[in-house]
Design goal:
Elements lengths: L1 H5 L3 E5 L8 E4 L13 E6 L2 E11 L10 E2 L2 E2 L8 H13 L4 H8 L15 E7 L10 H13 L2 E2 H7 L3 H10 L3 E7 L20 H16 L3 E7 L5 H14 L3 E5 L7 H11 L3 E4 L5 H12 L5 E4 L11 E7 L16 H12 L2 E6 L4 H8 L4 E5 L10 E6 L15 H12 L3 E5 L8 E4 L16 E3 L4 E3 L6 E2 L13 E4 L3 H11 L5 E4 L1 H4 L4 H10 L5 E4 L12 E6 L13 H13 L10 E6 L5 H7 L3 H15 L6 E9 L2 H21 L3 E13 L2 E10 L5 H18 L3 E6 L7
Parallel strand pairs: 2-5, 10-15, 10-16, 11-13, 11-14, 12-13, 14-15, 17-27, 18-25, 18-26, 24-25, 26-27
Antiparallel strand pairs: 1-2, 1-4, 3-4, 3-6, 7-8, 7-9, 19-23, 20-21, 21-22, 28-30, 28-31, 29-30
Helix pairs in contact: 2-3, 2-21, 4-6, 5-6, 7-8, 17-18, 18-19, 20-21
The structure holds adenosine-5'-diphosphate and zinc ion.
Length: about 750
């Protein structure tokens, strides 16, 4: 009854702890008017006080409520989380099998803070030319900076440094001399990206872009849910479609959430977005400080912006009426959150679009099997951009069988004569090359040549990677660091050899082979040093790198027109994973990395070196035949009942005692077997995880194969509840990963 709820006596509160259900609290007399859904409260919890969120109002008719403790304080006058947003977060928590409180903690800035972080935006210097004109005594560098400032009218110091290296320092000195005028302003975006020439007014959409935009325009205007898969080959103008669709949504008064896999890696894209939408855009990503995040969050919630661009967590942007969700590079596994609450941001974007009556646009040059399946089952409409913009063509790709190379020695065996010649020719024409190798470090293993023992991590069941730069062996799973041994720990032999090749060794090889060339490396080892990606990418942008060596980071959306050759050192690496997605991932990465070649006026070529030239994913990537690959891949998945033809749930168990974990996993499997078989769910395992020990914890897993469209959120919480106690009592941790991407640990 409405009258009752107008003055609630009790509230249900979600607390940010791993507990499956909300708790009931009594509303203090006289404070009923403050009890609203979405308001934060301070409540007693055991002997602690915690911040929680009101998820429902209650009338006290159920038994538990009589003993309820009292709310200590109401922290908001207006809902902190709007009812529509809370409904989305609750549904998301249900589908991910996560407690709502944990989902709130993952989705809201600073978790669920008692006090919001003060929204203090950073400041930055901006420069203009001063009234007086400079005298002739400027150095060439100063002249360059002056010209850049003059050209921009007004420019921030990070943007200036992006244009002219060291530019902000030079500008500071010019300002001291009165040649430039500097002032401080609040920074509305936490990341700076070079502002680019904006082609909005000039550029005429191609007929394919036009056709795609006609469809999205109608759907956005209709105000209902619609899903589109935008399949556009690399360089076909997808981004331009996104930017115009954002404009379409804005004209209907609705906001856009624009997801990208990893924002620090795409400064060019960010530059384009900010150039076009300026202050109308907020940026969210994992590198923000709490204050910066709170500031962006507030701009979104207050309706000051109509666009939020960000990494996966931006799917939680608190817009009041989002009308468009864009998922760029939707196939990218970066959309899967792999820690804490495990969610898939692409799937949540589709879910939220349904709840909000919005349009979702999933774009990629290599759409995922899941998205193509949506199209085939009529749940999404396919939009295609089958041609590159202008006269540019896709590069020609040749495949080289590396098996013939075994006779060559050392690192040479990773360079076929074909690859070597191609790099040589590229350099001699004054063009740039990229070499792709999906393994960082110098050598992936250190092996005793006498007894064959490979040095393993103390904490994990993996071999250690030799990193020359650190002079150490590093574990890529737990970050343990060890001094490389001089003798084998097992047989005492002295011949401990570096085996295999990583990006560090590749750089060394290339630098030795082409002494004149400027060689740079881009991989996540650099990410440990903040801002380094940006530095390498801007050197690349300025044409100061002749050979760029890197892991899959170099495959991501970059647009370097001078790159005409791409070499893939060893295409098989991702194929050898015991994972049903390994062929799809290999196809994607080969297509994406090939797409970096020939984006300018000159045509591109690609060489893929492999030990399995006959594999369908390699053949089809070389033929640019996405649909041919997907046909084969979907047929295979269907015959095995793998996603998207079924769902999966991975139960992980881990703890310090192997025996315990095995026992617990077995008793969980036994307890599940009846209800699961009644529901038509297959249970595989329990078995040790492929990497059975990580960070000193043993790992076991149970894999459930679930029929398609099965409602995981409606079925499992009930079944799991009693099991959680068994697991907890045994001192073992259990975690459910719905539709998992990582089956290794
Ligand atoms: P994608 O996102 O598919 O890789 P982009 O949107 O980055 O492709 O477009 C590739 C290049 O073509 C960009 O430099 C972009 O500015 C340009 N471009 C996009 N659409 C057009 C168009 N209709 N006319 C001319 N140039 C375009
Ligand atoms: Zn380790």
């Amino acid at each position: 009854m409405d009258t009752l709820y107008a003055l609630p006596l009790f509230v249900e509160v979600a607390v940010p702890l791993p507990i499956d259900h909300p708790f009931t609290y009594r509303v203090p007399l006289g404070q009923q008017a403050r009890a609203q859904v979405g308001v934060r409260v301070l409540v007693p919890f055991g002997r602690r006080k915690v911040t929680g969120l009101i998820t429902a109002l209650a009338d006290g008719s159920s038994l538990g409520e009589r003993e309820a403790r009292e709310v200590l304080a109401f922290l908001d006058d207006e809902p902190y989380v709007s009812p529509a947003h809370l409904a989305f977060l609750s549904a998301a928590a249900r589908e991910c099998l996560a407690p709502l409180g944990e989902m709130l903690r993952a989705a809201l800035p600073g978790g669920l803070p008692r006090r919001e972080a003060p929204a203090s935006p950073r400041t930055e210097m901006v420069y203009r030319a001063a009234d007086s004109s400079p005298d002739a005594s400027l150095t060439p560098k100063q002249r360059k900076v002056y010209a850049a400032v003059l050209g921009a009218g007004e420019i921030s110091s990070p943007d200036l440094s992006a244009l002219v290296p060291g530019g902000s320092e030079v500008a500071r000195r010019l300002a001291a001399k009165g040649i430039l005028a500097g002032s401080v302003r609040e920074k509305s975006q936490p990341l700076s990206a070079p502002r680019l020439f904006d082609a909005t007014g000039v550029l005429v959409p191609t007929s394919h872009q036009e056709a795609a935009l006609a469809r999205t325009g109608v759907a956005i205007a209709s105000g209902g849910f619609a899903a589109f898969v935008l399949h556009g080959i690399t360089g076909s103008g997808k981004t331009e479609v996104y930017l115009r669709a954002i404009e379409q949504a804005r004209l209907t008064g609705r906001q856009t959430v624009y997801l990208v896999p990893e924002i620090a890696l795409t400064p060019q894209l960010l530059g384009r977005v900010l150039t076009r939408f300026g202050e109308g855009a907020a940026v969210l990503h994992s590198g923000l400080t709490r204050a910066e995040r709170a500031f962006q969050w507030r701009r979104i919630r207050a309706g000051e912006v109509f666009l939020c661009i960000g990494a996966r967590s931006a799917v939680f942007s608190p817009f009041s009426s989002p009308g468009l969700f864009i998922v760029d590079e939707e196939h990218d596994s970066a959309y899967k959150q792999e820690e804490g609450v495990r969610y898939q941001a692409r799937d949540l974007a589709v879910m939220r679009a349904k709840m909000e009556g919005a349009v979702v646009l999933l774009g990629s040059a290599t759409p995922s099997a899941e998205s193509i399946h949506l199209v085939r089952s009529g749940e999404a409409t396919l939009l295609s951009l089958p041609e590159r913009i202008g006269t540019r063509h896709l590069p020609s790709i040749s495949v080289v069988d590396l098996k013939g190379q075994a006779a060559r020695r050392g690192a040479d065996r990773y360079f076929s004569p074909e690859l070597e010649d191609a790099v040589e020719e590229t350099l001699s024409r004054g063009e740039k090359a990229m070499l792709f190798l999906n393994r960082r470090g110098y050598a992936p293993a250190l092996t005793c040549l006498d007894c064959g023992t490979t040095v393993q991590c103390r904490n994990c069941q993996v071999s250690l990677t030799y990193h020359k730069q650190d002079g150490a062996l590093l574990c890529h799973y737990c970050s343990a660091k060890e001094v490389p041994p001089e003798r084998c720990g097992v047989c005492g032999g002295h011949k401990v050899a570096q085996v295999g090749i990583g990006t560090e060794r590749l750089v060394a090889w290339a630098a030795k082979r082409w002494k004149e060339a400027r060689v740079a490396r881009l991989d996540s080892d650099l990410g440990r040093k903040k801002g380094f990606y940006g530095e390498v990418l801007s050197r690349m942008q300025r044409g100061e790198v002749d050979i760029l060596v890197g892991t899959q980071i170099i495959a991501k959306g970059h647009d370097f027109p001078e790159v005409t050759f791409v070499g893939v050192l060893l295409a098989d690496q991702s194929l050898s994973f015991p994972d049903f997605r390994s062929a799809e991932r290999t196809f994607q990465i080969l297509t994406q990395v090939s797409g970096r070649a020939g984006r300018g006026d000159r045509p591109g070529t690609v060489i893929i070196q492999t030990l399995s030239p006959e594999h369908v994913c390699i053949r089809k990537a070389a033929e640019h035949d996405f649909h041919g690959f997907m046909e084969a891949e979907l047929a295979e998945r269907e015959s095995l009942g793998y996603p998207p033809f079924g769902r999966m749930l991975l139960l992980r168990f881990w703890g310090p005692k192997l025996e315990r974990i095995r026992e617990v996993a077995e008793s969980v499997a036994e307890a599940l077997s009846r209800p699961l078989s009644e529901a038509g769910i297959r249970l595989l395992g329990p078995a040790p995880s492929p990497i059975a020990r990580v960070k000193r914890k043993y790992r076991y897993q149970i894999l459930l194969k679930i029929p398609p469209r099965f409602s995981v959120g409606a079925f499992f919480p009930e079944i799991f509840r009693p099991l959680r106690d068994i697991v907890k009592k045994a001192g073992v941790r259990m975690e459910a990963d719905v539709d998992p991407y990582n089956l290794m640990v």
